[in-house]
Automatic annotation (TrEMBL):
Compositional bias annotation for Acidic residues: 259-269
Leader sequence segment: none
Organism: Autumnicola tepida
Domain (PPIase FKBP-type) ranges: 124-238
Record's keyword annotation contains Isomerase: yes
PROSITE patterns: FKBP_PPIASE, PROKAR_LIPOPROTEIN
Catalytic activity: [protein]-peptidylproline (omega=180) = [protein]-peptidylproline (omega=0)
UniProt keyword list: Isomerase, Rotamase
Keyword Phosphoprotein: no
Region feature Disordered, mapped onto this chain: 259-318
Stated name of the protein: peptidylprolyl isomerase
E.C. code: 5.2.1.8
Length: 318
């Protein structure tokens, strides 16, 4: 019960978090003339490589944890008494992930200090994350390490306050692409003081070019075209079913491009993962699929035309 209460509180915090969330109705967003994405990608990568070459993290503490070590990543400049430290760019924990977004290839640098031992989230899932976000100059623009936040990674389509369809939730691509490289905790313990001790959770940091962040859309504390750094602890990863139709959202990515927002079978504006009646035939998707006792999904094809009933408007229940 205590854990459920904490998760509810964390969810409410997540609704107000703007540093990672996308929201079509965001206020206070500053737009500047947009630069060429390819050129900016090159500039950002140079800045990130320079940062990674001149900074290190507290790898020695992770290798030989001191008493009461909090397993937090701390990054500092290689200088003075730290001049002999191994730079991030040379760490065997740093991986480069190439992400194609809007026809531009970006280098996303992920520091995988500990992968974690639990479930690895998909691009369509919900995750409980402790995080700290900062700029390359060290300015912190948001953080919730002590009070983790639930993030709906892709977001969904619904009606906004003006009665129009809009996209809600979701996170910037760099944040989502990094979380899918870690695993959640294997277990947890609720302590007498109502805090939680997590076991074998994912620990890392991600270095994000602006094209996988906010690009030209300045946010509070984040100037336009800013590369970003996030320290992340991944505690939980839950398989999402945004529309409650019985089909996990990741399975509603019909073209398997990891973009849920270009899959809309009945073209009604509600993407399949946001639509409880995917083919628009009046019969809810949940009534056109079968869920076996062991959780296996079966997709009947009554007329044997190669299209499952839930995606076939010619098959419906009267």
């Amino acid at each position: 019960m205590r854990l459920k209460q904490l998760f509810l509180i964390c969810t409410l915090f997540g609704l107000t978090f703007t540093s990672c969330n996308k929201d079509d109705d965001d206020d206070g967003v500053t737009t500047v003339p947009e630069r060429d994405r390819g050129e900016q990608a090159v500039e950002d990568d140079e800045a990130l490589v320079a940062y990674l070459s001149t900074h290190f993290y507290n790898y020695e503490e992770f290798e030989t944890p001191p008493e009461n070590f909090d397993y937090r990543i701390r990054i500092d400049t290689i200088a003075g008494e730290n001049s002999d430290k191994t730079p991030l760019i040379d760490s065997d924990k740093l991986v480069e992930k190439i992400v194609d977004d809007e026809d531009v290839e970006y280098s996303l640098y992920i520091l995988k200090v500990r992968e974690g031992g639990g479930r690895m989230p998909t691009f369509a899932d919900s995750t409980l994350v402790g995080y700290k976000g900062e700029l390359l100059n060290g300015n912190i623009f948001d953080q919730n390490m002590a009070a983790p936040v639930w993030f709906d990674l892709p977001g969904y389509i619904t009606v906004n306050s003006n009665g129009r369809l809009a996209r809600f939730g979701g996170v910037i691509p760099g944040f989502s692409e990094s979380l899918t490289e870690f695993r959640a905790a294997t277990n947890y313990t609720v302590n007498p003081d109502n805090t939680i001790t997590w076991e074998d959770y994912g620990i890392g940091a991600v270095f994000v070019p602006s094209g996988l962040g906010y690009f030209s859309m300045g946010q509070s504390g984040i100037p336009a075209y800013s590369p970003l750094i996030f320290e992340i602890n991944l505690y939980r990863a839950l398989e999402a079913d945004h529309d409650g139709d019985g089909i996990p959202s990741w399975m509603e990515d019909l073209d398997e491009d990891e973009n849920l927002f270009n899959d809309d079978t009945d073209e009604d504006g509600y993407t399949n993962h946001s639509d409880p009646d995917d083919d628009g035939d009046g019969t809810p998707t949940r009534e056109e699929i079968e869920i076996l006792e062991d959780g296996t999904l079966v997709f009947p094809d009554s007329n044997n035309d190669g299209t499952p009933d839930y995606l076939d408007p010619d098959v419906f229940k009267g």
